[in-house]
Specification:
about 15% helix; alpha+beta; single chain; Methylamine Dehydrogenase, Chain H; globular; about 400 residues
Length: about 400
């Protein structure tokens, strides 16, 4: 009985001795530094473990605070005061400013991204948002703003300067009825799914699709095979392109939980995908990049939600901008004829391209719908004007969105 009780009493002491020997052997520098701070080597090793754990907690807390990365359950971050960031008005109003991108909801609701590259060693960027006649300018930023449309609102997102969601700040700029709001988009863990109302875009991280949530001011990577041209229709289906050395189309009806896929082009991974609002008509273009425009390799159209595809005949030789796909089973493309650099508006219908009505000039891209077509006009000097049509491209007018 006595020997058994002695063994029981001695066990904690033996354990502490073994722990102490382990720390002496594995962490000699830590033990030495703790001694310099007044923690004797004879103190119980469990206290040392507590000191290490407390130190690690402080370090982890500092890392999360600096990088802004955390788990998906974290609360949204606070709105940044405008005074904490450099005013972007000097970028937008500069005589050498260039119009880079535009997202329009209506004629009086839009976001426009601007660049100024002539007055310093590095370009400066900003954005302007118009909401029913009230305008606000985003803070200056070292990389171009992405202008996006979500519902009845146009927003501007300042991507991370390093091009990946690994630590650099990402800003969200909105204009509400209460005034402009600048907030930092908090990085959360990548997911394979997304929810209704979240924004899918490939304009923030090159070659990747990210998810922006406006309700809690977060941004995260979408971990799927889809890499470019995301588009969601009003029925809840979202589409995208993928493939290395080839192009496949992928789609999901359940927010990324499951995906369908089909091959589009076995030899070309360039090009764009455009989807009609109702999701019935899709147009995919494969292009060859040139110095001033993109040469059309193939253009395909589907009017049954991607079940069957038709190769479009008589397409434009070059693709300046577009396409814009409409609910009536047609699409509008801005392109040029061989030997004629002047862009013309083409309508794609019944598997064939035909020259359509007016010519708005050389546009950087073409966006919109049956009621509103628009795109930045490419000028020989400075691109500052936006070509705008409210009658399906029959007539065009020009505005400066700043």
């Amino acid at each position: 009985m006595t020997s058994k009780g002695q063994r029981l009493i001695a066990t904690p002491g033996v354990t502490l001795l073994r722990l102490r020997a382990y720390f002496d052997r594995s962490y000699p520098r830590l033990i030495e530094r703790l001694e310099r701070l007044g923690v004797p080597r004879r103190w119980p090793p469990l206290l040392i473990v507590g000191v290490v754990a407390a130190t690690m907690s402080v370090v982890l807390a500092a890392v999360v605070w600096i990088t802004g990365r955390s788990g998906p359950s974290d609360p949204p971050i606070a709105i940044l005061p405008a005074a904490a960031l450099k005013d972007g008005n000097s970028v937008v109003t500069a005589g050498t400013a260039q119009l880079r991108s535009v997202a329009m909801v209506t004629r009086n609701r839009w976001a426009a991204g601007w660049a100024e590259c002539a007055t310093g060693p590095q370009c400066r960027y900003s954005a302007v948002i118009d909401r029913d006649g009230a305008k606000a300018t985003a803070p200056e930023w070292p990389v171009p703003y992405a202008t996006l449309r979500t519902g009845d609102e146009a927003i501007a997102v300042a991507p991370p300067a390093e091009g990946t969601l690994t630590g650099d700040a990402t800003l969200l700029f909105r204009l509400t009825y209460d005034g402009p709001v600048t907030s930092r988009l908090q990085y959360v863990l990548p997911t394979r799914t997304f929810r209704s109302g979240e924004i899918l875009t490939d304009q923030i991280v090159p070659g990747r699709i990210v998810v922006v949530n406006l309700e809690d001011s977060t941004v995260r990577m979408l971990e799927t095979s889809a890499t470019r041209s995301p588009a969601c229709d009003t029925g809840g289906r979202c589409w995208a392109l993928t493939g290395i050395g080839r192009t496949d189309i992928v789609w999901t009806d359940d927010g990324g939980a499951t995906w369908g896929s089909a091959p589009l082009d076995a030899t070309n991974q360039g090009g764009r995908l455009a989807v009609s609002p109702d999701g019935k008509t899709l147009v995919a273009t494969a292009v060859t990049i040139g110095s001033l425009s993109e040469t059309v390799s193939t253009m395909r159209i589907s009017t049954d939600r991607g079940a069957r595809w038709t190769t479009v005949r008589n397409t434009p030789w070059s693709l300046n901008a577009g396409p814009v796909v409409l609910n009536d089973g047609t699409a509008l493309v801005l392109g040029g004829r061989s030997g004629d650099p002047t862009p013309h508006l083409y309508r794609i219908s019944d598997g064939q391209g035909r020259p359509d009505r007016g010519s708005p000039g050389v546009l950087a891209h073409l966006s919109g719908d049956a009621h509103l077509l628009y795109g930045p006009e490419v000028s020989k000097r400075h691109t500052t004007r936006l070509a705008l049509s409210t009658d399906g491209g029959t007539t065009w007018e020009y505005v400066v969105p700043r």
